Amino acid sequence: MSNEAKRFEVHSHTVYSNFRLLDCINKPEKLIKRAIEIGLSGIAITDHETVAGHMEINLLAQSLQKDYPDFKIALGNEIYLTELREIGQKYFHFILIAKNKDGQRALRELSSKSWLNSYYDRGLERVPTLYSELEAIIHKYPNSLIATSACLGGELSSTTLDLCMAETRGNTETANAAYNKIINFVLWCKELFGEDFYIECAPGKSKDQIIVNKRLKSIAEAFNIKMVIGSDAHYLTKKDRYVHKSYLNSKGGEREVDSFYEYAYLQTDEEEEDNLIVCFDKNFIKSMWNNSMEIWSKIENYSLSHKQTIPKVEVKDYPILPSTMGDYMETKFPVLCAMTRSTDKIERYWVNECIHKLDELDKYNEVYLSRLEEEAEVKKVIGEKLETNMFAYPVTLQHYVDLFWNCGSMVGAGRGSSCAALNHYLLGVTQLDPIEWNLPFFRYLNRERTELGDIDLDLCPSKRPKILDEIKKERAENFIASIDEDSRRNLGCTLIATYGTESTKSTILTACRGYRSEECPDGIDNDIAQYLSSLVPQERGFLWSLKDMIIGDPEKGRNPVSMFVSEVNEYPGLLDIMIGIEGIVNKRSSHASGVILFDEDPYEFGCFMKTPKGEVITQYDLHMCEAAG
């Protein structure tokens, strides 16, 4: 039967689900590769209240189009749905999947709002989405999102279990309350999503899951709603359960890893059928697979990639000069002359400011003008390749360097190759004359280097909060009217996210904490774990990978670390745990100095969350922010 119907996976997780609580060991590329291997027609990535992986996953999707044109990767989010933001309540899971680019933007807005309003409850940061907020976003972006009722943690499945338990105990009052709650919730979902709402069951054999699955079928038939199957994949295959369980054990505390995650992997058709046959007949299982293909058919292919944009600032509008500046100037400095006649306000500002500064410094001569001509020409070439205005970059920075000084901060002379640009010096961005110091411009930018280039400046750390606040206030004044107050207050200038990962040493320590055996019921002794981690070689500040330690790398002149291999093999299965969790994302933080400035609409490309300390940051990391524009 499994070859008669294709299926689309509607519910799966990646390592980006680990931001608030260790939860998943699936790296996006491996999860997608596994989905293709087992013959799925596509997969929806629905991490726990985050869209941080969307850019990376969308780039993967675009790269697969040539070889797998019919395989679809949908971008989603498993939100926590509540009536209010209050402590002590249940946080019900709910799946949202973007149909198109508008849907993905809706997810970014919704997720950002949840994070901006996060709070702590029972020792864990909570990021719920309110029913009212979901209603508002659906009305703002109609026909853009698909929803499913999610897993046992969802309101429908959870309340269905309450109903069944109450009926078994003969508790009529509780049963009636659960019955009415189910009716109200399902009607709400139908009204909000229409034909884009599906009831989700899970392929598992736990007692609770079997009870709920059977009752969900009755509910689906009563309301004429289609059912789908969601694997809720937190690890790739059944054999990876040991690694996943160990990873969760490493955190300590009470975690019901066996019962809750036993079937939470990306199942094959045969595995799903085997795990559901106790609840449904084969034809009904096939019908749910067909329903998942209906979701597949609603998913559009779209790219989130965008050329980088440079934030705008208001500048003096220099007049457009006459058609010629004389034969000598026009012949010797054609780019500079053309810029004085440009219809682009930024170009005219750049060239006039630089020339006026040369005159002020008594350096208006052929040497300096020739250098400025060279820089203008290179900027033109690179700007055409990047499809952006390269002159806007130093102009915007000039504005903010002035702001830094006005906030009471000293500003450093400039770092590295940025001091090789004469225009930076003339605009007051850097403080070294590159001609006096014999710094060639190609060190900073040349025709072959198709990128904006870095300009690194040092500021007073004590003034950093004030500077960020001032920039936020300034940028927020330019936001479009539809941007809400929370976003207006926080998103004008946003710190860039960094993701913490399991390095080679932390992988060893984490694996040892999570390891369980008869000899080590509470994990491997910390002294032994520390000893094993001390065996990791380091070169130029970089740790060897586990692969290099185990099998070596002849190209790098690295031989296997035999002592490490020997010691680790004393603990059966420990190496598998290490290999399974190395490099996994396990935390979030802010970049030491990187910020992003937004123009009229921070949600045009952005999405946001908070660090554990409460700082507002992007959800994408630096490279993914650049890819998004």
Q: How would you characterize the overall build of this protein?
A:
It is a single chain. By secondary structure, the protein is α/β, with parallel strands linked by helices. It contains 25 helices and 16 strands. The strands form four sheets. Strands 1, 2, 3, 4, 7, 8, 9 and 10 form an eight-stranded mixed sheet that branches. It has a four-stranded mixed sheet with strand order 14-11-16-15. The longest helix is centred in the N-terminal third of the chain and has 22 residues, at 172-193. The model has no long low-confidence stretch (mean pLDDT 95).
Short overview:
By secondary structure, the protein is an alpha/beta fold.
Keywords:
4-stranded mixed β-sheet; single chain; globular; 629 residues; 44% helix; 8-stranded mixed β-sheet; alpha/beta
Helix content percent band: 40-55%
Beta fraction: 5-15%
Give the overall shape, derived from the CA principal axes: globular
Number of strands: 16
Mean pLDDT reading: 95
Radius of gyration, taken over Cα atoms and rounded to an integer in Å? 29 Å
Count of alpha and pi helical runs: 25
**Structural class per helix/strand content?**
alpha/beta
